[in-house]
Each structure stands twice: as C-alpha cells, then as structure tokens.
Amino acid sequence: MTTAAPTRPIAERVLDSFPSGSYALHALLQVLEIVESEEVETAATECRVQPRMLINPRFVEEHAATSEKLLMLVMHELHHVLLGHTRLFPRATRVDNLVFDAVINALLCRMLPAPEHTKFFTDYYDDRSFPACLLRPPARWSPGDEAVACPPALAGESSSRARHVYEQLYSERGASYHDLYHVLRDHVSEEQAQSVPLLGGHGGDRCQPIEEVDLRAGSPVLFGAVRRIVEEWPQPPDPIAGRSLEELTRDELLSPAPGASNRQLLRSLLRKVGGVDGHGSSRRAWREDARTAETPVPTFQRRSVVLRVMGAQPLLHQASIPVRRWLPTGERVHVYLDVSGSIGDLKGALYGAVLDCAAFVHPHVHLFSTVVADVSLDGLRRGDCTTTFGTDITCVAAHMKANRVRRAVIITDGFVGPPHCEHQDTLHDAVVGVALTPGPTTRNDLLSVTNHWAQLRQPIRKG
User: Fold this and answer.
1) Which CATH superfamily is 260-274+330-455 part of?
2) CA 175 distance to own-chain centroid
3) Global pTM value
4) At what angle do helices 67-83 and 220-231 cross, to 10 degrees?
C-alpha cells in the first residue's frame, strides 16, 4: 500500500541529500520517479517503461532520518545498477546478495567515510551478530587505519577465515566479491543469510528490483542516466580490489563455443573493414602449400630408395604435393572483444566466432572492459580472459592510438559510453566496424565513429 506523503516528500529529501550541483541528478529524476511505498521493506527499483524507485517512508524515518543516511540508502541502490552484481553468478542466492551488499557498503564507506554517513550502516547492523557484522565498518573506523578492529562476532577461533577477509575488506589491501564468497559459502547457510535484513530489493514477490534485471534491456535510458551520475561520484584516492569501479579485475577461463551461425556475418564485416571485396576475386590471391601424400609413382624419397636397394619393392611412395588455396589480400583486422559483465555467458560463443575467422584477424585479439588485455589466438582457444566487468570505449581508443591501429572491428553490445575529444578523433580517423552481440544492444554510443555494422545471432545449442 502506498502511504500518504509526509511533510516533506521523499523525492524532495533525496534531492536535498546530494551535494549541490553534483551527480547529474536532473537527468536521473527525468527518467526515474521516486515513490513512497510500504510495499517494499527498505527500497527497490522497478524496471518498467517509467522506472520507479520505491522507498518505504517508515524505514526512512526509523533508519535514514538524516540527509547523510538517506544518501547512503539511495547510493546503495544505484550501485547495484552500476555494478550489475547478479550477472556475476548464474542465479543469485541469499548468500550471494549478502556478499554483494558487503562489498557495496565497504565501497560507499570509503567514498564517504565521515561518521554521519557510515552511521547508517553501524546503526543498522550489529557488530555482535554474524553474518550481519560483515555489512558495516568497524567501530571508530576511518580509511588508512593500519589496524582494523575486529567485530565481536568474529572474535572466536572458528571465525578466523571470516575475520581475515573482513579485515582485508576494510584495510588498504581490499577484498573482492570472490574473496568474500569463498569464505561465506563455507560459514553461512541460506537460513543464516535469510536472517540478515538486506538493503534494497533482493527478489521481492511483487517488485522486480533493478539489480535483478538487465537494466540495459528494460530501461536503457535509465541505465545511461545512472551511468552518467556514477561517473561523477567521488572515487577513493587509492582504489583497491572489490571496491573500485575501475579496478575490479578478475581472470577467468572460458570454453570457446563454435559460432557457425555468426561466421558468415563476422567474416563479411572483417572483409569490409580489412579492404577485401566479399564478391569479386580480384582482391584474393593464391598461396601454395606443400602437403605429404602416398602415391604409387616411384619417387626419390629416402625410404623408397633404401627399400629398393634391399630388394623390396614398395607399393606406395611418399611425395610432396603442392596445394593451392585462396587467401584474402586485405589487411588483418584488429578485433576488440567486449568481455564486460553485461556480455555474460555469450563470451564463449564470441570466442568461437572469432576463431572461425582467424584468417582475417590480427594474431592478437584485444579483450576490453575498462582496460585492454591482449590475448593470442592460441590463448583464445584456451579460453583465457581478463576483465574488470565494466565497459568503457576510452580504453579501446587509447589502445588504437598507441598501437597505430587503422582498421578495427569492435564486438560489443554497444553500451560502452560515447567517445569524446581525442578518443572520438582516433576512432573517426580509423576504419571501424561494430558487430553487435545477440540480445539488447544500442548503436547510439558508437554511431558517429562506425563505418560498418553487423548484428550477430544467438547461437543455437543442440541438447
């Protein structure tokens, strides 16, 4: 049931909680309606044609009555949007959500470490209760502390592993999602996780929370507004693992899957970008390779000569036969492959599609998220992958400029952010083709710098 508005509406209080002139809030409020509702316990965001952030006014009065506390609640929700946490695991459990909230809360505490801000978490979560103590900073904590105070709930010997990863989370070293997850899956049951009141919507019956959907598909305008806001958020001076939006890097192994349905589409795009006419033969050339074959015609092969000297007459002889085959004469194209979190389980199929077109591809494929990581075609076959889970076209443009790349194909869903200034000039001066992945995509960010487009298809797997 939606409650009556208090003296000051929640939307007005949210607006006032943000520093003046910051965070591009005008763009957010144009696409996101803030509604007071008791249909959610704390806050949640519905992803619909007109997105709504639902905030429980009773919760605000009890736990987020100050502007600083209300700011932390709203920022917690928006960080789920930005980081796309539920795409890290196939199906998010209550323990997964506990890990997500622990990392987000630590990130927010480092960004806004003043006691009036961190008090939102220290008042809401008890440091004498496990696992709730993981969702708040230590008592009297401040960034840069050499020693991190241990919560009373983690004082026992049986909690040594959890205590160690908690100390990392709030120390200069930092801890990632997976550091926490590997500990919590052994120490926390689903029943224990259910007892912890989490912030935001984590799979309510009525409201589909924003972190449980693909925001790019449901509301790309809202995603763009949130991205612009978060780009302006103050980042920690010393970003560390699990708490930096740019440095959350993880290596993973993928299983390349054949992309036969995409082979022709991708080859056609590579030919166009590489300067190869896909219809005429004037832009193709012969190459002769030598292959060994068995033949009844006698040869001067050493084995045949020795056998004849020994009185034996071999029926077959080994011979080197020249074989001609067509090869493209255009340049091999540099491929920039999006491996961010939004690509999800498509990465294996995309690896297979690139390998299908190896004759047209530069020997090193450039994997990109918010950084570029080069991998050889052999590495691609092994499934090597390095990703920060974010996406930013800036790193692609900088890599192209540094390596003087003149022809490039970018394989992405298109949600990479528009290039600006020198980065736009770099992409505009090159021949750029964009292969859009299956599923929700956009051409808006790269429209001004793309010469050729292709739309890849969802690979069909036979069970």
Assistant:
1) von Willebrand factor, type A domain (3.40.50.410)
2) 18
3) 0.51
4) 120
Which of these, 244, 234, 219, lies nearest to 53 by C-alpha position? 219
pLDDT in tens, 207-255: 344 333 444 444 454 455 455 544 444 444 444 333 343 433 344 455 5
Whether the CB-CB separation of 251 and 386 falls below 8 Å is answered with yes
For the record, the structure tokens of 405 come out as 């790349």
Whole-angstrom distance, CA of residue 51 vs CA of residue 450: 31
**131 preceded by cis ω (within 30°)?**
yes
Domain boundaries, the chain: 10-243, 260-274+330-455, 286-328
Instruction: Choose among 352, 392, 355: nearest CA to 372.
Output: 392
In this structure, what are the phi and psi dihedrals at residue 404, rounded to the nearest 5 degrees? 55, 45
Both tokens of residue 104?
Answer: 């987000």
With CA atoms as reference, report the closest residue to 131 among 195, 202, 201: 195
φ, ψ at 123 (rounded to 5°)? -80, -35
- DSSP-derived pairing of the beta strands 407-412 and 384-387: unpaired
Query: How far from chain centre, in Å, is Cα 230?
Result: 16
Contact 216, 415 (CB under 8 A): yes
Q: Which two tokens stand for residue 184?
A: 């919590």
Q: Is the pLDDT of residue 446 over 60?
A: yes
**Joined tokens for residue 187:** 């120490």
Question: Any residues with CB less than 8 A from the CB of 405 and at least 6 apart, and which?
Answer: 334, 399, 430
CA distances 20 to 53, 55, 228, 345, Å, are 21, 22, 16, 41
Give the Cα-Cα-Cα angle 93, 49, 70 (nearest 5 degrees).
Answer: 60
Q: Residues 3, 81, 447, CA angle at the centre, nearest 5°? A: 125
Residue with tokens 């920039």: 336
Please report, for residues 231, 340, 343, the alpha-carbon distance to residue 389 in angstroms, rounded to integers and kept in the order given. 15, 4, 9
Of residues 170, 173, 139, 141, the one with CA closest to residue 153 = 139
Mean pLDDT, the chain, rounded, equals: 75
